[in-house]
## 1
Amino acid sequence: MKNIPWQDSPENCKDVLWRHASNPIIDRYAIPSSNSIFNSAVVPFKDGFAGVFRCDNKAVQMNIFAGFSKDGINWDINHEPIKMQPGNTQMIESDYKYDPRVTFIEDRYWITWCNGYHGPTIGIGYTFDFEEFFQCENAFLPFNRNGVLFPKRINGKYALLSRPSDNGHTPFGDIYISYSPDMKYWGEHRCVMKVAPFEQSAWQCTKIGAGPVPILTAEGWLLFYHGVIATCNGFRYSIGAAILEENEPDKVKFRSKPYLLAPAKLYELTGDVPNVLFPCAALHSIEEDRLALYYGAADTVTGVAYGRISEVLEYVKQNTLK
Ligand code: BMA
């Protein structure tokens, strides 16, 4: 793995995740049409990085845009949204696209996003070069959100996390897994994790959803996720982590009782939707024991947080929800 973005933990910092010193790294007006740029996904690409960015425009229409970076921090985001060509099916409708995730599997970069098809469901597409993009069948019937692929086949099949949902600002939500032999037909749906009881871990008591593509570690899959509590001022989104069995990822080995990162900085507490941290990507290096987590802040801008993979694993094991 090439040099991923990194800053050492600030002095006296006791947290397992810490923020990039000059967050947010992407401003809401970074392209001419944008109202906000957040909940976006990045991967290593050629001698740098590429990404798929959620840029809502000034009519507040949600769409996804390709972008490129040498260092993972300074991004050139295309001014025009991604145009899809037919992938493994004829061209299907898309009223909107948001909250992308990207992962490389075998020979191409797969993209999942929340696709507007009579309400939100999981869109799937692929690219080889971040220039041409191909759209495949939606994974599910509406309504569903937070579709996140595993970065390799599991027992010979593609595996996809998702969160069955509704057509509004869903007041519920648990994480499920589904399998496919071909990225077209999905089945073998199993429940992975449900919300936590309010008395035990209130930050994740209303709904939870998978965040970045899971990271394979010696302990199993490290899955960052968002957890939501409904407060008197609306939803508050924080970041937690779980460890899933490598070959049976519907089995949760550990899951953090405390959150790992929650809205606290001004750009997380204020914006179009206050109090939202929404992670969609994690660059990582197992050898260097580093990770860089990309998250949308307050549905307005994009931030990065850093951590040591070994410390996150240890923290989740020591502070697990029983
Ligand atoms: C969810 C999605 C996310 C958003 C979050 C908070 O339902 O729309 O894109 O970050 O709400 O508004």
## 2
Amino acid sequence: MDKNNNKKLNVYISEEEKTLNWEDIQNSFKKMFGNEIYTSWLQKISLIKEYNDYLILGVPTRFFRDWIVSRYLDKILEQVKSFKLSLNRIEFKIIEENRNTQELTKIEELSKITEIKDSILNYNRLNPNLSFDNFILGKSNEVALSYSKRVCEHLSRYNPLYICGGVGLGKTHLLNAIGLNLQSENNVMFISAERFMYHFIKSIKKNDMVNFKDFFRKSSVFIIDDIQFIRGKESLQEEFFHTFNSLMDKGSQIIISADRTPMKLDRVQERIKSRLAGGLVVDIEVPDLELKTKIIKKKILEIQNQFKENINLSDNVIEYIANESKTNIRELIGILNRVIAFSRVHNKILTTADCKNILKDVFSQIRVITVDKIQNIVSNYFNIPLNDMLSQRRSRPLARPRQIAMYLAKKMTTRSLPEIGRRFANRDHTTVIHAVKTITRLIEQDDEMKKNIGQLKNLLLENQN
Ligand code: ADP
Ligand code: MG
């Protein structure tokens, strides 16, 4: 690892927060991935910041990040989890090589401001790479794009603007683009619903609701991503509703994304649904071949410019990639990265037959459902912290979801019972057997349980990347 770089980065890891030894983790990567993959990829990743439930890792380029995410993310997460069980997410940050001192001071200053601001700012930052300029127009996103732009020109005319569409179709990209467009003249707040919930719960525990409310209600443009995650917990919905109403009352623009229309949100109060539907609802559909082809060509250009190299993919190959990836632009980009990396390493012009070979296992890989994913989705669904779900506590509100997660892990992954037990804070395999039996019985006896399991399975099948 680049020692200098690492040293600089350490400036903003607060010492008392650190529990992970990155060197140990790196060594385990080496064992897990082998020397070759390790030195070309894993070794270049640095630890920037450690939170209780997620890590921010530093990578040198965007391409590097996409590559790691599309190929190794699951394994990396699995591995770091074995060092710290409460982790459930990894975020990447691209570190420019010549980070100047001014930026460092900025970051140091950031860490001095109050905790809620500090932690929110960490992901409230807009991604400068997701703008209107590089969002490609197609039939499937025409309406959503056009209203996203109009919102920027006429604040509070369409309020709230609600963008819905399936996974990987460009919702976050559009939200981010709106934020970028408006941030110089407005107080823009951009947060995922999941994070909003996390802060809400944390503020309750710390008795700090006043700050929480003030913080969110200050924004004049409030952008909230993946609102389907706000569900359940009455008190949270109440707070969300109040925040929402007071923002609307003072004329702030609200922009929301979700994977479904407002009326289809489950376990959300009716009055919230109708308020959400009360502005303008636009959707993004599945991309057609034309849009997919355009996106591939644009990405190739971007990579060429960034790396100053010539990428030679024939029209046949481009068409092949566009056809292979059926519904999801994120997946499409992942596949493209993989093909480009291959052609770069082997320095040859690829045929469609080569592509077929390269991608042979990509699709099966992308569709893998992992124990991690199950644990995350179940804890989210029941609105309980992952830590609590995995803990030794036996109260029913924790024990049931835990058993459900074990049941799903047995049914939907190829992991053995002892392996599943280990992933649930080192429980014995007999505990897993008991969980599977209990849930199987409850599904037969209890309609509510049957419904829950059905919905969870759908979520797992939907969220495949
Ligand atoms: P969602 O939030 O709907 O799951 P994202 O906004 O994260 O999807 O999009 C997934 C990836 O696809 C991102 O890298 C995004 O930049 C890219 N993408 C999606 N739609 C477009 C588009 N029309 N033009 C360019 N890139 C796009
Ligand atoms: Mg998104």
